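Fresh eyes needed here. Kindly weigh in on this sequence plus structure tokens:
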Amino acid sequence: MISGSAQGYRGVAEAAWRWVLDQVRWDDGPWIPESAGISEISEYRDTMYSGVGGLAYVLAEIRFARDWTAEERGVAEAIVEWLTGRIEDEIDCSLFGGLVSSIGVLTALEVPGAQAAVDRLIALRTRDGWPQTAIGPPGSCQAPWSTMPLSARPGSCSARCGPGARAWPTPATSVRRLPAC
């Protein structure tokens, strides 16, 4: 059994976070290596799962405990600038690395921009679903997503589309029903 004080745990957490902040790279926008010792920008650089987008959730949690430092504020601002600057051209609609990831990141940081990502998702919807990058070439409709997980708020909302799903809400009405992003 591990025992210790809140102050001790906080010290360990701050040291770990310091290490993470030291990993942030600034070549062509903010990014973090996929793992220690990697020096190349990953294709997943923006994702909430293994990229800089995931730092937004840590920053959101830190804000519950204390104010951000100037460095943390700078990282948050750089993430926001980078992701919002890419929304217009983004074709990945996935939760971990695409527009849905951006919605979550921008919402966690409590900044404007999530609605632009929602609007882009609506614009990308096809009769068969949303283009995806997991199967086939990027933007492929060979196997489009037919369920769009939207997790911009706790308790995700799903929108179904495609043949045979007419009884379900349309993506536009489902997305519009989300709390203000």
